[in-house]
Amino acid sequence: MRVVIQRVSAASVTIAGRVTGQIDRGLLVFVGIEEADTAADGEWLAQKIARLRIFADAEGHMNLSLLDLAGARDAPGSAPQAPGLRALALVVSQFTLHASTQKGARPSFHRAARPAHAQPLYRQFIGQLSTALGRPVATGEFGAMMEVALVNDGPVTLVIDSQQRE
After folding, report:
1. Does domain 2-161 have CATH number 1.10.150.240?
2. Residues catalogued as catalytic
3. pTM exceeds cut of 0.85
């Protein structure tokens, strides 16, 4: 699995004029799945994403993770969250993350998994990330034409590939 993670102040997914997923401060996670991917790749990524220390602490240093943000939001006396904005991550399927541009001008997507393999892993990854965070994860819709809106915070953008664990 390959993910592109963007730290955001806000993000949403709209499909056919209807918002299907929305978050405020958190991570927008684009997920591409290839044929070699398994549920173990999703679990590894979910744990990695939940613990990435890419949010600023009180001194402005990137020392906080999504788990830290979740704890702060759930602390007594914290500001109440609007319904539907309790999610800290918005997960969007994106097969184009496995594009090959080696030949010519038209990308090839031969490494991207077919829907029969990718969709169950996408759903499972959503569950794995939700479990790792201890809260629901907002989503797009697998295979749909989506409009993704975001306010990139930083900007902070990372690429992580479970087949190339560093």
Report:
1. no
2. 94-96
3. yes
